[in-house]
Write a structure and sequence with these properties.
Layout lengths: L8 H13 L4 H8 L3 H14 L19
Helix pairs in contact: 1-3
Amino acid sequence: MKGRGRYPKEFKIEAIRLLNDGEKPASEIVMELGVKRTLLYRWRDQAREKGEVAFQGKGGRPKNEKIPW
């Protein structure tokens, strides 16, 4: 099984820019970038919510943070 992908901040920002430009449908963007549609929308939502501080970490949940389920 393949591990979790890690994408650089610049990659995520460019993916969000492509989505927000609206020149191409999301389905085409995800095929070109090789990411899942849900991931692309999650990045967009994180950028909207957190602004400049989005995508600062290495990803993943902090060890001391409990899983909500």
